[in-house]
Fold this sequence. Notes:
Helix content of chain A: 55-70%
Distance between the termini of chain A: 33 Å
Oligomer: homodimer
Number of domains of chain A: 1
Number of helices of chain A: 6
Mean pLDDT of chain A: 95
Amino acid sequence: MEYNLDNTINHRIATLAILLKRQVYRIIAENNLEITPEQWVIMYYLWKENGLSIGEIAAKSKKDFGNVTRIIDKLEKLEYVNKRKNDKDSRIINIYLLPKAEDIKEPITKCWEKSTNITLKGISDSEQEILLNILNKIENNILENLE
Amino acid sequence: MEYNLDNTINHRIATLAILLKRQVYRIIAENNLEITPEQWVIMYYLWKENGLSIGEIAAKSKKDFGNVTRIIDKLEKLEYVNKRKNDKDSRIINIYLLPKAEDIKEPITKCWEKSTNITLKGISDSEQEILLNILNKIENNILENLE
DNA sequence: TTGTTTTATTTGTCATGACAAATATTTAAA
DNA sequence: TTTAAATATTTGTCATGACAAATAAAACAA
């Protein structure tokens, strides 16, 4: 084989993402929380700015529009959020956090921190900074290309 | 919010992986190839070592056992591989590449290279090396933790 | 040899990627 | 104003994550 996939950055990132997902799922399960990592990400953006529209959430989270719709539907069933039509433009649906969301905020954030701590064991602050910088560049490269 | 998800390495890797997946899917579609990135990854390991068992492929690719079974089933339908029971231990299924696999080898490898080139635009060799090193450390941290 | 444990694979179910087509509403153009 | 184009969301379908339970065969123990 001319070419070593395991030294390819794209493939390493894809593999790492799978492992990270597995890790977070398990930590969440150990803590008996009723939420998934992806659901949490969306709630995170709502905690930062309650009432975002589906489109805004999709843009911020870089998720597919349709997938966001479905994740929101699940969050609605779990009673973490509700949907409300925008008064001025009824094409737009705004999403609002419900009280039950508050219950899960601290424990799920702790799960995330736990996962991050495992990930970063033995990696210095300066390495982390370098890593984030390079990851930023890569993300910009991809976004530029995807338009 | 006490805490900025967008500066979290775990989250950045997860997001990047989504964007990378989208990018590769599109490149593959532009080239009208009948394969997915995950299917390709499995074929890559077979090109390196034809006849691997499902379990070996799962271990090498770090994918879930059951998911590998299903990806192999699809590769079989596409006539890229076939399954053969191991003579000595009939619990084991070995997977062998078929001639049709050869047709796709070069074009799909090119797609992957194209995607990698987009990703790495403006990132120096030394940065790439540093990045791979840190990603290795992270992967080891996670694997250690998952057992 | 028979019963138990381990190992390899399959299958079931749910969540979320991907893309495309359908719907509804608003904006812009004729 | 009526029609066409653009925008926001939903829905459909497939592929692949996750985990758990089921099946089949081999290895080990009694």
